[in-house]
Structure formats: structure tokens, C-alpha cells
Amino acid sequence: MRTTFTRLGRTALCHAVLLALPVLAHGAEMRVDVRADVRADADARAGALVARMTLDEKIAQLLNVAPALPRLGIPAYNWWTESLHGALGPVPTTNFPEPIGLAATFDEKLLRDVASAIGTEVQALHTLGRETGRLGRIGTGLDTWSPNINIFRDPRWGRGQETYGEDPYLTAVLGVAFVQGVQGPDPELPKVIATPKHFAVHSGPEPTRHVANVFVSDHDLEDTYLPAFRAAIVDGKAGSVMCAYNRINGQPACGSNLLLERTLRGAWGFKGYVVSDCDAVTDISIHSKYATDPAAAVAVALKAGTDNECNTQTLSDTPGLDQRYREAYQRGLIGMADIDRALVRLFSARLRNGDLAGLPARAHEPVPVTAIDTPEHRALALKAAVESLVLLKNDGVLPLRSDVRIAVAGPLADATRVLRGNYSSTQSAPPVSVLDGLRAALPGARIQAVPFGASITDGDPVPPSAFRTPDGKPGLRAEYFNRNGGAAGAAVPGKTPFEAKPAAVRVEPGLESHALELKEVADHHKVVWTGSLVAPETGTYRIGVTGVQGQMTVAGKPAAAAKSYSRWAEPLQLAEVSLEKGKSYPIRYQTETGVTAVPGLFWKRISRNPQAELKKAAADADVVVAVVGLTSDLEGEELALKIEGFAGGDRTSLDLPRDQRRLLEQAKATGKPLVVVVMGGSAIDLSWAKDNASAIVAAWYPGQSGGQAVADVVSGKSDAGGRLPLTFYRSVADLPPFDDYGMKGRTYRYFTGTPVYPFGFGLSYTTFAYGPLQVEPVDGAPENGVLVTTTVSNTGKRDGDEVAQLYLTPPAFEGAPRVALRGFQRLSLKAGERRTVSFRLSPRDLSFVTRDGVRQLMPGTLGVTVGSGQPGTGVAGQAATVVLKRSDVLPR
Fold first, then answer.
1. Torsion sign, CA atoms 433, 439, 445, 448
2. What are phi and psi of 860, to 5 degrees?
3. What is the band of 205 on the pLDDT scale with cuts at 50, 70, 90?
4. Cα–Cα distance for residue pair 277/308, rounded to 1 Å
């Protein structure tokens, strides 16, 4: 079926474009270099194709859901594909650490490998979409709306977890690595098109992102907010860019002449396509009031160079979304040339990434679905998680002995959902909790789990082992009902909304829908799950559901009940129930197409007296391991949440939640050494733990293998080699106002206070030393660049990982940073090993930005340090200087 569909669609497309363009035939002509002018060829073929479309066909292609054009042999395409740290689709995919954790690895090659694995899985999901005939659904395109390379300028921003941290240089290097990894070795023929986002000057607050008018100085724009995007486009050759919600100096980002015309396509020579953040185009009239009405809004975006609009109403297949473009054309606000320019960019991309056939240079076989979540990708996820962990303190308690007695406490000790972070697939392999990881890594240890009380971080997926079908088998009975009304999804008058007979009946592991894998299930459908839940232990549980209607019955009364469907980002509502071990509790839930929240049943077994249980467990333990932190339910994208410490997805405090602070104090009072494992996607005030704990490990949101990675590090199986990609401050009182985008007083480059832990900090189980620096000019003058060379030695008794970091200290000028990272290399050194390390700094690496936003070489003496962290923080390292005499201006 797939072969027939693909062959027919691609053959028809070839015939369409060949009316205007010849294709190389087999034989002698095939010896012609088909690589020559690939983009020009793709653009010409796309132009010929667009020329055959009607106006109605054209404007329908401008939204993220591009309908099929059967008469031209063009299948449907959905540009909405997410893979921030793992591909998202209807089948289990590999879940890597959250990007902030990937940044903590300071490992450019690792990030490229991770992105390559993600790109392969995105390709395989596209194959699955072809096989099931669902290329118009989310997650089937050969592009991805990643990476997020906004600068994490303020720890209060809830989406900072999606970024590579606070430093423009680190973000630029890792952003390029992701782009190159996901796109593959040939940016003109990408396996998946990368889309760096959100362009630009975008990093909170979340509640005001649709209306914010961000004013930014020329200095901060060039110095902080644009370098990573420039690198992703100019060096990484990203094929797409996503514009942001907010306005910049008065203009909407998706209608900005400064960003899209003068900078992106002008100074940087970008030739790809621009996609809007979801609903950012509608914001132009509805929220920012920059345009008078929706038609004027699409005109602003299209004429500025936004080629493709993401609109969230496509999730519910709302008809008529393209009417705004038709009206804009009828009113003369846009012309045919504006529409055609955007469509040529879009269809050229689909030809070059292989979604559409007809491009001679694009010859490859579809990536099979079996390439998803392979053993190799799982091993890479574990490696990335291990490298992401940052050892912040260790008084000698770590690594733990193999026969140690451990009391494992904290609300996140046995949690798994927290490990995934945000923008992750619920279909991924079940993550390994820290508790289970410790049990696996230390089989000779005696490990006791200490139940915690109710917490705002509660809520883990109910495991498949707890479900039973109506006839007593593992799992839940799932019935899939197609909607009456066919493809349009509209109910037929006089009939029930859904067909009476299920199109498919299956046993699912839990509240899971596999409709996108089933050809017999229509795009518009509902799923009904029935069965029961069986508790593994008697006790008090907090339990709740998302994305469904229905209930579980306990003692004849409804529990975990939902009368209406929850929405995307709506907080999880949990209620306490008493469950008995081995007893069955009936379940009946349903969901239907258009519900934005993912179906799920969540629970957490809690203790009525956690303090007493902790005291008892600690009395029989050598060490207490407390697993605390945040979750993506607390910090995240535009969340409907307002509680102590959190509002709208952002944070209002850098403190741990109150119940966790109390737990750490109680653990310290037991008198046993305290190891604190901290999860989260942002900086947390760890001043109490720094003064009172024996060891601290920052674990971020480490992905599906996170618990195993933590266990491998604390047991000594692996070294902790991660470094902080953020400054860990003591309080928000140390920072400027959140909505002030000026960089003065922010990040390690401009913060003049004393942090709890500085950017770039991280310990190892061994020690390192650096040899004297050699600084040599390139091509006879340092203004042409310099080569910095040193030696790094492992002076300890264990093998370990080091991150050699190069910082520049500029001469004094208005707007100068204190120091700036300009190079890093992660090294794995055996005990006693010594290695030569070199950094080649280009003129751009040596440059800084004037008050007026001009990037140039600053005449004077530059300090150069290479070491285990920032200069002046007491870490191992060496220093030298380089003198610049010319003030060369560099291109934007």
C-alpha cells in the first residue's frame, strides 16, 4: 500500500515539474554532476510547480498543515514537527536529556551525535506517516522546530530548560552542532531541516509573551541575542528559522524588517524559509495590535518574509484558516509575487529534503521505522545523561561503597515523568528512576526507599503492570470509533457523532492511543478504554488524569474523575484515595480528536508521616540520598499555574519548594551524610545545601536513562564531568527585573555579585593540572587570529573527564563583559595521562561589541585563560595575554 501511494504521488509530481524542466535520464547523462546548483535546481522545479497552482491551492499551502494536491501528485505535509531532545511521534522514540542538560556536557561532538540520532528517528516517523497515509498529521514532516537557541538570560524563565544556557558562545557552538547533526553532512540535501528558534530576543516572561514589546540596545542585540542565530545560519547552514511571538523595538518578530530582512536575509544571506511560532501571526493583530485586523496581520508577516504560519487551530482541523490570506490578496495587501516567493521556498525545501521526488541529486531510500529507539540510540541517551551530570560538592562521601546502606528520600526519588522534561514523548521507553538506578548499580548495597508526603511535584504514569482488561489480562481494552461525517469530521445530522461499531479493538498497555498507527482508524475518532487498576501496595495514593473524560471507581464512588477534557499545559489535578493491594478498581475513560492534552492516568503513593519514616530509615543507613528539585509541570511553556514560587510557567523564586527544603533539613538532622540530587531545568538557590550537604549533584531533566546515569555517577562507575551552563544565583533579588532585556547585571559575563556556583563550574573524582599557555599569531598578526596551546594532565588516581575552558578578558571599554567564553573541549583522561590541547581563535572569537552595536577588535591587551572554569574562581588553569593593535570591524 505504501509503495503504491509513494510511487503514484512522486511520479505525478515528476510529470508536473518536468513540463518545465528536463530531468537527467539514465545513461551518459547521469554522469553529469547532479550536485551542481542543487538549490537553484530545486528552486526552479518548485517555481514550475507553484506556477501550475490556483490561488486557492496556493494560499492553503501557507499554513503548517499543507493539504494534498492530488491533481499535481502532491501529498499532504505538516510542517509541525518537534524534536527538541527526541523525536515526537505515535511510537516510542528515544528521549535524550533536556537541552540544558545537553549543554552541561560541554561536548560538541556528543551533541552532534544526539542530533543525528534524532534526525534519523524523524525520518523514520516520516516513513511511518507514509505507510499509514497520515502525512498531514503532526510529527510526520522532514523538518523539525529545533533547536531552541534563545539565551537563558534570567533563571526565572520557565522555557530556559529548552536552551543551551546563558552564554552566546556555548549556545552558538552547540546550536551549530545540533543543526549539522540533524540535517546531515549536506545542508543543500538535508535529511531533516533544522529550525533554530525563537528569532529573536525572546526569553520570557511567559504570561506576557504574546503582548510584550521588548526594547533592546544595539549592543545587547549584537553581543548577546544574535550570535547564536548567526552561527546556526552562517556556519551551521540551517534551512529554516522560527520567528518569535514578541515585538522587538516596536515591530513583531514575525514582521520585523530589522530581523527578517536586514539581518537574516540581508547580512547573513539566508536562503531558506521562515516559519512563525504557533499563533504569532494572529498575535500581530489580536494581541500586539500592530495590524488592524487578521488579514492585515498575515500581510505584515508574509511581506516581511514569514513563509509558513503555524496556527494552533489546525490541531482541531478548524476550516477557513486560509481565508485571511484570500482577503489580504483581495484587498491588495499582498500580491501574487508575495505568495509565490513563500511557496517556492517551501516546495524547494520539500524537494531537497526528499519529501517530494523529482530532484536528481536527491536519491535515498526511506529510513525504516525500525531505526526508531534502537539499542544504539538508547546507549547514546545514557552516555548523554552521564555526561550532563554536574558534581557541585563532594566532601569524600562519593563515590558510594558497593556495600553501602542507603536511605533514598525525596519526592523525585522514585519518579520517572520528571526525567523526560518538556517537549518529550510520552511514548518513549519507561524512564529509569534514581531509586531503580541505584538498585541496579549497587546490587550489594542495602537500599531503603523512604515514602514522601504530598508534594506539588507528584504524579507519575501508572505503570502497565497495574492495569487489567475486563477479562483479567494485562493492559486495558481500547475501542477506536470513527466519527460520522468522514474526512471533514462534521457530525452527520440525525446520527450520533461517532459510529456505533468500533473500527478497531486492541489491548493497550494503559491510557495510550495508537490511532496514528492504524489505517482503519480515521483521523477523526474517539478512543474508549475499559478495565481496572490493581494497586501493588496498600496505602494512600494521590491520583489524577489528563486528556480524558470518565472515572475510576473506588468503594462505589468516583475517583480520578474527569467530567471534561483537560487542556494542554493545564496543571495535573490529584486527589487522595485509599487503595488495597491486589484489589481491582474499575476504569472507564475516553478521549477524542481535538483534545490537546495527552491522555494519561497518574499517581503517587505517599506517606502520612514522612518525617518519622525518614528518621527510622536513616538510623539504619550509612548515607541519605535526597532526590529533590522541580518538574516541567512547574516550569515550562505558558502554564496555567500560580502557586508559591511559580507563576504562568515561570519562577518567582529560586528556592526549592517548601516541603523539599524541610526534607533536607530533616535529613541533615539525622546526623548521616547527606547526598543531594537536584533535578530541574534552571538555576536553583543551593546555598543551604552547599553549607550542609556532603555532596550535591545537578541532574537536570536527564531523559529516559536519567536514574541509571545518576546511579552510575554516585556509585563511581562513571566520572561526573558536566559543567554548569548557567550561573546559580542566591536570589532573584540579585537580578534586574525579569522583563528588562538589558544584560547589565545578568549572566556570568555581566553579573558582579558572588554566585552560589559560577557558570562553567563542576568537579570530578580526580584532579587536573594545566601547563603554561603558548599564544601564537595566525598569518603573522594576532588580529588575524591566534592559536592557544596548553597541556592538560590527570594528576589523580582515577580516570576522569575534564572540560578545558578558554576565557578572554577584554580591555576596558563601555559595555565590556567581565570575561567571555571563547573555547572549550571535553577530555577523557586516564589516571596520569597528559594531553596537548589547542584552541584556534578567529578574529570573530577575539572581537567584542561596542556600545553602539559594532563588532570589532578592541585594541589593547586581552587576557587569555585556559582552565577548569572561569578565571578567578580558584580552579586549575593558566593565563597569558595577547595584544591587539588594529580595530578591525567585523561583518554583522
1. positive
2. 135, -165
3. very high
4. 10
pLDDT digits (tens, 9 = 90+) for 120-140: 999 999 999 999 999 999 999
pLDDT at position 55 over 70 = yes
Is the peptide bond prior to 399 cis by the omega test (within 30 degrees of 0)? Answer: yes
Under 8 Å between Cβ of 244 and 198: yes
Give mean pLDDT, residues 70-92. 96
Return the C-alpha cell found at 256. Answer: 520585523
Q: How many CB atoms lie within 10 A of CB 617?
A: 21
Rg of the chain in Å (alpha carbons): 28
Which distant-in-sequence residues (6+ apart) come within 8 Å of 38 by Cβ?
188, 189, 352, 359, 361
| Candidate list 277, 309, 373, 638, residue with the active-site label | 277
pLDDT tens for 140-170 read: 999 999 999 999 999 999 999 999 999 999 9
Would the pLDDT of 819 be above 80?
A: yes
Instruction: Name residue, grid cell 489535578.
Output: 573
CA angle 252, 258, 260 (to 5 degrees): 75
Coil, strand or helix at 271: coil
Q: Is residue 849 within 8 Å of residue 222, measured between CB atoms?
A: yes
Residue 8 above 50 pLDDT?
no
Q: Is 635 a catalytic residue?
A: yes
Task: Give CA separation, 110 vs 115, 293, 453, in Å.
Answer: 9, 47, 38
- Among 635, 650, 685, 783, the one annotated catalytic: 635
Cα distance between residue 804 and residue 867, in whole Å = 5
Q: How many CB atoms lie within 10 A of CB 778?
A: 15
Give the count of alpha carbons within 13 A of 403, CB side only: 0
| Residue 147: cis peptide before it, omega within 30 degrees of 0 | yes
Confirm whether 801 is a catalytic residue.
no
Those residues with Cβ within 8 angstroms of residue 27's Cβ, 6 or more apart along the chain or in another chain: none
